[in-house]
Amino acid sequence: MTSSLLWLVILSTLIILAQAVKFDLPATVADNVEQSQRCLSQFVAKDTQVYITVKVGEGYNQRIDLTVSQDGDVPSVYTRKRDIQQSFANVFNTISDGQVTACFTNSLDKGFVENSQYNRWVELDMNIGAEAMDYNALAKSEQLGPLELELRKLEKVVQEIVDEMSYLKQREALMRNTNESTNERVKWFSLLSLFTLVSLGLWQILYLQRFFRRKHLID
């Protein structure tokens, strides 16, 4: 029992572990900033907590802006942050299923010309669901021990897996219904096409027979 619990805790830790993305963002003039923006996205289900942290390096006369949005049935913009200095963090809950996209732009101040020396590094850490919870605050508020806290993390991760499986099951049922409906339509369309071709063939034969008899070419 203890061994199984230990493996579950290790598995939950590996699942919860988040990997930050770090990259260099070249600076451009204001007219070209939209074309040079860098975007990172990840699918997030509805009613899911997302915690985004951003760190940026130093850059002379450069301004990094961030926009976090989501497509889907209800397109939404969750964050607009201009001129990020050193770090920035934001927490929000999604209102629909879709891709959550974080787009960065790095614009030069007026009077500066684009050059390879103008760039700043950006580090993005997007924590979703169980990853986004503040477990330290939870442990303090509910006075949880280390093992209890790990079990609470595991409970949250398992719940997310169950929700994800339920979502995939619903998607599978929707796709199956769509395929069955499409197959039914194709079947009736094929039968209609066959009936039309047979009818045209019979009509053509009868028409040619009458035509040749009028011309006395056949008896």
Automatic annotation (TrEMBL):
**Segments traversing the membrane:** 188-208
Taxonomy, top ranks, is: Eukaryota, Fungi, Fungi incertae sedis, Mucoromycota, Mucoromycotina
- Coiled coil: which residue ranges? none
**What organism is this sequence from?**
Absidia repens
Query: Which InterPro entries does this one have?
Result: Emp24-like, GOLD_dom
Ranges of residues in domain GOLD: 37-128
Superkingdom as given in the UniProt entry: Eukaryota
Q: Does the keyword Membrane apply?
A: yes
Pfam families, per database record: EMP24_GP25L
Assigned protein family: Belongs to the EMP24/GP25L family.
Q: Which residue positions does the secretion signal occupy? A: 1-20
Membrane topology type: Single-pass type I membrane protein
Q: Give the SMART domains listed for this entry.
A: EMP24_GP25L
List the GO cellular component terms. Answer: COPII-coated ER to Golgi transport vesicle; membrane
Locations listed in the record:
Membrane
Protein name, entry field: Emp24/gp25L/p24 family/GOLD-domain-containing protein
Q: Which GO terms describe its biological process?
A: endoplasmic reticulum to Golgi vesicle-mediated transport
| Record keywords, A-Z | Membrane, Signal, Transmembrane, Transmembrane helix
